[in-house]
Amino acid sequence: MVSFFYSHLSAGAGGWSPLISDKYQWLEVDLGERTKITAVATQGRYGSSDWLTSYLLMFSDTGHNWKQYRQEDSIGSFPGNSNADSVVQYKLQQPAIARFLRLIPLDWNPSGRIGLRLETYGCPYTSDVVSLNGGSSSLVYRLSPGPWRTSKEVVSLKFKTLRNSGILLHAEGQQGVSLSLELERGKLQLLLRQGKTSPEPLRLASLGSLLDDQHWHHVVLEQKNAHLNLTVDKNTERIWLRCPEHLKNLDKGNVTFSCAEPVSVALTFTGPQSFLQLPGTTASSPGGVSVGFQFRTWNKGGLLFTFSLPQQEGMVWLYLSDARLRLMIHISGLWPALFSGAALNDGQWHSVDFTARRGRLTISVDKGEGGIAHAAPSFPVTTESQLFFGGCPAEEHSEECRNLFETFQGCMRLLTVENQPVDLIKVQQRLLGNYSQLQIDMCGIIDRCSPSHCEHGGRCSQSWTVFHCNCSDTGYSGATCHSSVYEQSCEAYKHNGNTSGHFYIDVDGSGPIKPQLVYCNMTEETTWMVLLHNNTELTRVRPSPAVSQHSVHFDYSTQEEQLLAAISQSEHCEQELSYHCRKSRLLNTLEGSPFSWWLGGPGQGRVQTYWGGAHPGSQQCACGLQGDCVDLQHYCNCDADRLEWTEDSGLLTHKDTLPVRSLVLGDIQRPGSEAAYRVGPLRCHGDKNFWNAAFFDKETSYLHFPTFHGELSADISFLFKTTGSSGVFLENLGIKDFIRIELSSSTQVVFSFDVGNGPLEVRVESSVPLNDNRWHRVRAERNVKEASLRLDELPVATQEAPTDGHFHLQLNSQLFIGGTASRQKGFRGCIRSLQLNGVTLDLEERAKITPGVQPGCPGHCSSYGSLCQNHGRCVERASGFQCDCSLSAYAGVFCQTEVSASFKPGTSVSYTFKEPYELSRNRSALPSSIYSEMTLRAENISLSFRTNQSPALLLYVSSYYREYLAVLISKHDKLEVRYKLDSSRDAEVLRSSVRNVANGQLHTVTIKRLTDSVSVQIDENAREDFNLTSDGEFNAVKSLVLGRVHESDDLDPDLAKLASLGFTGCLSVVHFNTISPLKAALRHSDTSPVIITGPLVQSNCGSAASTNPYAAENTPHLSGKKGGASFANQIKTKMSLCVLRACVCVCVLLMGAAVCELHYGLIKFVHLVGATNDNVLDNIIN
């Protein structure tokens, strides 16, 4: 271990080669003065087999307290040479300023020895320094009087210290306002005080960590108008100041213009093989033992020091356990342990004093401030053997050192034994004690949580070697909380099989915009996203002579950036705006300026002078555009200024003017003026990103986009479908780095990349072929901790990043989609909804101008058709699909909603089949769902019922030939099916053995007949089979009746009596061959051959309780009718809903946990139908 000055590289003889080639050697260079070092170059020893293959670089100002140079804050080692002659030069990403440089060999040519020629590049570095002793010393700099007049002010300095607390800079301003930079526990805090009497200062920013390491740190405080930028080393935080002019004087007083360099030699215990061995006390020492030291670590556990008790054949261990100091002594069994301190794994320096004298043992942490523990052992605690710090030697069965705990990873300094400091430089020179795997004269601690790589508010914690992100309650997942756990739109939730409900959507995926709670209405063909504000009710405006205008502001349930992003992403948005008036004008005045207006669009909104249903800037209402206003001389109904109630209502559909932010109503102060307004919720549909797709019809075709920037974290997601067995989905290249996702075989997807230290691959294998022409979803993520790949719903495959690897992914080529730059291994098929770091690439627009690529991609039913349930039929659409429920007894977006009705004794639903003379007519007059042939040789019947009635007739089918089919509950609470397929014979009765079906519970019955074979199944019971003796033809079917049968002349006497009683209970999802009579009655009564008598009430009596929080379709009153329904009718509707809406329970999925909020309150509404009802309305409103 010899120190050398550096020498220039040359082709001549020479070079450095130590006598012993091991990892404890180093080459030290004294540059003579502080130098700004920009590059280093290495070469092997001339004419030999001696060269380095990797090494570390250390820098120091004093020759002590070395600091390891790291590229990208991660990579510590530098690749060396591959032979003795070539020169390998590395330019340092950040120049190092130091006088001393130390190179430490890590690996060398295995056929040779350590050999090196070294050259450094740089220039002298000079700067003024000042030393402050932490007492009254300060440096004062007074600016010119008055506020800062320039738009930019900069204060820049560098500092070094061994103390973890103190004021670095203080600025006094007017009105007692002050700003200070203070070091607190090794972090730099920017604090604002509003006055001398103000309480705690306001913390504006906190940056840096471990700044008490006696190395130079660069601080820049930059003021730009109302913003402050604080930079510590390479990390910047931006702060907004309300009154920057109050800061004008910088105070900084008695100083020494030199920099004291106290020498403090530290040790770094790097791993499980690290230990320090020191001699114990001598025989001449007083009885007992005294050991002191300081340590810092991130680990909760680890051995600090141990020694043996030879006389007692015992051991003493002082170690960390759960971040507390613990002493354990073993002498013929365990002696009670001592504890002291807490949270000692915070990365700060902590002092430990261990003393055993005169029968008293004491452990003190941080000079007693962190805790003191005492004990009085009955045996002497002395050591004449060796002291071991951090761990034990690798030799087994050592009697002097046995470690039962984790080894220590961290730093130690200021070691004392018997109150005498330990000379660690002698230890380094092998003149004192022994050691292994130590870094001496440096503390190699790294704060991996400063700056934090945990995104979206994830909480960072760390050990000595790794950091961990706690993503709970953030709405994001992954090793760095990068990827959103929520979908980006209601459209995406729908295609996961969800139905209407409240959902969190994250419009930009992994981007900075937080998730927002919205209501997704999926009851219609179009999926609507509904964004509420604080008043969607119809609200009356009372005239007030003292107030010339009435102004109201609307606060939305989402933040501004969330709201604007949701509008931008949607294909269509609309918001209802209505004004109900009586002698209250709206827009048009004699001079042309409007009486009323509204503000809409981004921010506070822009003034809009048109009304719902008209065009922006037109100063009209919907009736003016349509030419049907009550007074054709005006463009709004309300502008007619009549005494009768009228209204102007319509939808605002121009996204640039949405949402409505506020409303100003002007003509409300005149006697007799009355008005009411309603601004509905914002409703949007269509996801421009979800269906954005391109079809690659050739292997040589591709799309190209600008370079992908995912230096620290990158997530890529898309859907694909193909019939090919391989192809590249995506590729982006750099000089050495690259990123690629490909279909490597018909069952495997591979995500590969290189960030400078060799290719890394993550693979997912599917058990089913992926070239099935169905949509498959790929999600890949790469961050500083790991790379992950997920295919469909298969388990996530992960690959950890190298501990000492590159961070930044450096790409420079174009991004290729569907192929590569070499036009090889191209992809044939469709790629859809491609997103990179939450940003959707517009494949369709690029495909329109690219040969071999077509915009869009049809054929979605092959992937999503299974979402259509209960015989629903999947229908292709240009963007997506639709479930056709016309052949199903169910309704809803996926034909999943049961259609049920409550029946009373007088209720009858009669479905009439074709009359005989209609057989020759065009059958297209009726939908396929309500048409059936006249003669049946088979039936497929299913229904659900809930009743306590016994006996009861559930279903009756008659014919023109006095034949019938009846499904009933007998007086014995059993199900019977009666077939009379021959008018000359008695009905055949098929009795089920299932008992107690009239017990008020929901039962499902399935009846199938094929000629003379009949099967009956009730619920999950076994199927029962029967045989008929008739010919098996049900001729001239006439009608199907649910409930009471009015025409019972053709029935047997006992069945006629039963039919006249009617049915009391619930019938649900009634299906007879291809028709659904109950659905036809409830949903299509105007177009179906259905006759309804008596009360028929639609309900959900046939639904079973759902365990899915999204399963129950919820259609609360979120918006009124879009047309011109009378004001009085609207108010009457609201009156009927008042009781229902007084207490509304809304269950939402809140960040992964179900939360039910109970909202109480009187729903305010207006009922204005004439002067005679005003007193009643006033009571309701008030």
Automatic annotation (TrEMBL):
Its main location: membrane. Residues 265-443, 692-857, 908-1101 form the Laminin G domain. PROSITE patterns: EGF_3 (PS50026), FA58C_1 (PS01285), FA58C_3 (PS50022), FIBRINOGEN_C_2 (PS51406), LAM_G_DOMAIN (PS50025). It is a single-pass type I membrane protein. It comes from the Eukaryota. Residues 481-533 form the Fibrinogen C-terminal domain. Disulfide bonds join C830-C857. It is found in: Membrane. The keyword NADP does not apply. Keywords: Disulfide bond, EGF-like domain, Membrane, Repeat, Signal, Transmembrane, Transmembrane helix. CDD domains: EGF_CA (cd00054), FA58C (cd00057), LamG (cd00110). SUPFAM superfamilies: Concanavalin A-like lectins/glucanases (SSF49899), EGF/Laminin (SSF57196), Fibrinogen C-terminal domain-like (SSF56496), Galactose-binding domain-like (SSF49785). Residues 1-123 form the F5/8 type C domain. Residues 445-482, 858-896 form the EGF-like domain. One of its GO terms (cellular component) is membrane. Belongs to the neurexin family. This is Contactin-associated protein-like 4. It comes from Oreochromis niloticus.
